[in-house]
Amino acid sequence: MLLWTIASASDWGDDMDNATHWDRVYVGKANEELSWFQTGPDAGLEVLDRLSLPKDAPVIDIGGGGPSAFALELLSRGFRDLTILDISEAGLARCLSRLGNHEGVVELIQGDVRRFDPPRRYLLWHDRATLHFLTDAKDQQSYFAVLQRAVCCGGYVLIQTFAPDGPRSCSGLEVAPWTPEELAAALGGGFAMVESLRHNHWTPRGKPQAFTICLFRNQSTGEHP
Length: 225
Known about the structure:
225 residues, alpha/beta, 10 strands, 28% helix, 28% strand, globular
């Protein structure tokens, strides 16, 4: 069976409001009603394919619950060490229904990325459309502090977030867009930008959303996966 754990279950605090919000989004809408839903492959997969990571590479997908195609595509490519972190129980349940039985391959963790305590280091940190929901500077700092602890020496960070000319709100929440330069500054000098590109995601209703997609590599010396 898939392993499902809860991060910091005894200290949810204000995170419970965020979890409730996203639970309501997932319970109240079908996949085709979610603006980030896509029937085709995730745009970041083209970047990932160029890395030629080993199939046993530990990968963590941030906010990967719900209808995300990223996890399914990784499994179809033969990856066998995947962790999905999401604050929403309903989102993880929907993800679970799509993943099927991947014993020993996928771990689902319910928790807020800002307070996530990584149990180990990962070779790839992937985030599609989570970071831009963190509009407070302290929350952004917490996000990047967790990321820096979670990514191993030589590991990669693949972030997909709204671009400055993208939406100003999504799912009833304000968002904070990012440029490649802003992402590089937030990550710090220990992470080198490998690639950046602009991508237009088309929502199920046919509206374009401008995304910034960036790949970074951790240049620090230290622990390997």
